[in-house]
Amino acid sequence: MSSIKDELPPVRIGLLGLGTVGGGVVNVLKRNVLDLSRRAGRSIEVIHASARRLDAVRICPLDGILLTTNPMDVVENPDVDVIVEVMGGMQPASSLIRRALALGKPVITANKALIAHEGNELFALAQNNGTVVAFEAAVAGGIPIIKAIREGLAGNRIEWLAGIINGTSNFILTAMRDEGRSFADVLAQAQALGYAEADPTFDVEGIDAAHKLTILAAIAFGMPLKFDAVYTEGISQLQTEDVRYARELGYQIKHLGIARRFENGVELRVHPTLIPERRILANVDGVKNAVLVWGDAVGPTLYYGAGAGAEPTASAIVADLVDVVRTRTADPTHRVPHLAVLPDQITDLPILPMSEVETGYYLRLTVRDQPGVLANIARILADHGVNIEAMIQKEASIETAHLPIVLLTHPLQEARMNAAITAIETLDTVQAPVVRLRVESLAG
Ligand code: HSE
């Protein structure tokens, strides 16, 4: 067998960012050098890298890598063939990527915020310059979900997908459930372990998941990226008692990103969701991610794995690198399109308002312990067409004489549920805002 290295020169990588993920990329490229060159047909070497500080402690060796604090030097280096961007954030990442694309260099990025906000423009720029932006690492860490939807499921009409796509939120929810720990305490641990975003509100307010859902929906439905249209709710307001009550009713609360296609438009939503505990997704715990995709031909398929961390993210980046290296000699118009369909076939679809979404609801009401309370609530629910599926009533608190009532409803339109909640909250026996969570059966 002839040596691959003897036949073609190595592909030379410029790495923007040498933190956790950048270090992981260097380590994976070095450790798997032989397998990678067999797969890509050439060896892949990082030759130039930028970092904010050159004297920081690194998780990877730096031999053979020219270092700089100016990332534009890396982009402009004529010896660099491919750019890997793992700095995160909007700027300067956006300007650096745009310059690289203008130079015709393929870009591989883990930057979900940038793709969600500017992907439509970046893909057009790449196309105009005969190059590509690859972003497998932007969604669900090491899970090859973009490749699965874009290529593996290309024979299907994707009907819907639902995913646990923020590892930090899942880590926090799991610890709140299993250890009864407070939200703040678990968040601090997730930050220390390097799972959380630089600004952890992105994780706990659902923004990071909304970035990822934007990308998944665009690929699943062949539509433009529409981050601003995603209904976004995080886990920061979730109470430990609701996690407990949900379990008593046979459900787990998971933070889900849901995209579903209807005849008249698309639902895009990110929020805490009760799902039946028998579903595999309900048992995806800790920092793990999972995405359930429903295709008309294949039915449900589930993708599970590490959603964050140095080497899981590097796994996705290096897979993109192998793809890019494989296609460097191919006609750009025959590469796999960024959003799964040819650029002139991207179809704009209306995004349905949350008021039209139909789902089940978990309600927790805090009421005064006196006769007729339940009858009044039941009457309001009946007047609004709310069908109750299950109910539990807990003991009243000795200090306040307030008692929690927990209800599960059959699916109904969100606008009707909101109207019923507003009416319930006007009752003088109702002592606190109604806690409302959505319930999904995830069954077809
Ligand atoms: N902060 C992200 C998460 C990292 O927790 O999922 C991976 O995108």
Fold and architecture overview:
By secondary structure, the chain is α/β, with parallel strands linked by helices. It folds into 3 domains: 4-141 and 311-339, NAD(P)-binding Rossmann-like Domain (Rossmann fold, 3-Layer(aba) Sandwich), CATH 3.40.50.720; 145-307, Dihydrodipicolinate Reductase, domain 2; 356-439, Alpha-Beta Plaits (2-Layer Sandwich), CATH 3.30.70.260. It has 15 helices and 17 strands. Helix 14 (373-383) packs antiparallel against helix 15 (414-425). It is elongated. It starts with a helix and ends in a 5-residue tail after the last strand. The mean pLDDT is 93. Bound molecules: L-homoserine. L-homoserine binds next to helix 8. The site of L-homoserine has 11 residues, from helix 8.
Summarize it.
By secondary structure, the protein is an alpha/beta fold.
Key words describing this protein structure:
35% helix, binds L-homoserine, 3 domains, Dihydrodipicolinate Reductase, domain 2, 444 residues, eleven-stranded mixed beta sheet, six-stranded parallel beta sheet, Alpha-Beta Plaits, Rossmann fold, elongated, alpha/beta
